[in-house]
Design goal:
mainly alpha
Length: 293
């Protein structure tokens, strides 16, 4: 019997393209904000490629380590490993190849600091979060959010070869954004997480408790997003955008306390993605239209 060819789409699915696209976008924003004008094209290209490959490698490792959980959850049951389209050896080889190529590119064409920080982020997400935190505590997404918040710092260091305080502000914004973003999804998918015995907050402490935490983190996020303006990193264009977007997020978080339907949690989740992309877009607009003196 002939062996069915391995389709490119199966390996592409391992990289979680939508998630990785958001990661690379925030990394590129970090690169652009790190310099008054345009960053060197070489740093922009190789840095983006290296960070993308590392994020894709981490995503593939996540597929490998979570294959038992993925098979039990409706949202993930059609991924390549649960369906048998790929086996563990293929996924591991793919992840190692991407990770090794990422490190080679960052060391040779970018700088050692970016390579080290990127590797730490890869291990933080693919191993520390996936293997331990995800299964150990309902605060998994809070603690593990540090790895997902790293890309702007990686982008900044790719251009400047230093960890700047402004880059850490971008890290803080994404770090605080992650819990309300992910807990909204967890509320909607709580039956999946319960079936897979993953201790997400809606499972361990209930939906009402989780809604209050989403509201708390959203308020904190609105305050944290004022810091780029208050520290002189950004100006009025960013401030106006951050305030409007924050009020929108607050509306969703407050409405989630007594939602009109079960689907509303997914509306909050989708808005949180739009929110982050537009917030970083306002950072860029402010950076180039109102350059700092």
């Amino acid at each position: 019997m002939p062996v069915a060819p391995i389709k490119f789409a199966q390996f592409w699915a391992l990289t979680k393209p939508r998630v990785v696209a958001l990661i690379v976008f925030t990394a590129i924003v970090g690169m652009l904000l790190a310099t008054p004008g345009l960053p060197p094209l070489a740093a922009l290209f190789w840095g983006s490629l290296g960070i993308w490959l590392a994020a894709a490698s981490a995503a593939a490792i996540n597929h490998l380590l979570d294959q038992r959980i993925d098979a039990l959850m409706a949202r993930t049951s059609q991924r390549p490993l649960p369906t048998g389209e790929l086996n563990g050896r293929q996924v591991l080889g793919f992840a190692i190849a991407l990770g090794a190529l990422s490190m080679a590119i960052l060391i040779v064409f970018v700088n050692l600091l970016t390579a080290l920080l990127t590797f730490a982020s890869l291990i933080g997400y693919a191993v520390i979060y996936t293997v331990y935190l995800k299964r150990a505590t309902p605060q998994n997404i809070v603690i593990g959010g540090a790895a997902g918040a790293a890309p702007p710092v990686l982008g900044w260091t790719a251009v400047s070869n230093e960890v700047h305080a402004y880059a850490l502000l971008l890290f803080l914004i994404i770090f605080i954004w992650t819990p309300p973003h992910f807990w909204a999804l967890a509320i909607y998918r709580r039956a999946d997480y319960a079936r897979a015995q993953v201790p997400m907050l809606p499972i361990t402490h209930g939906v009402v408790f989780t809604r209050w935490h989403i509201l708390f983190y959203t308020i904190l996020l609105c305050l944290v997003t004022l810091l780029p303006y208050l520290t002189g990193m950004s100006g009025l264009i960013y401030l106006g955008g951050a305030v409007v977007l924050g009020l929108g997020f607050l509306y969703y978080a407050i409405r989630l306390m007594n939602p009109p339907s079960e689907l509303f949690a997914m509306e909050v989740f989708r808005y949180s993605i739009i929110y982050l992309m537009m917030l970083f877009g306002f950072l860029l607009a402010d950076h180039y239209l109102l350059p700092r003196l």
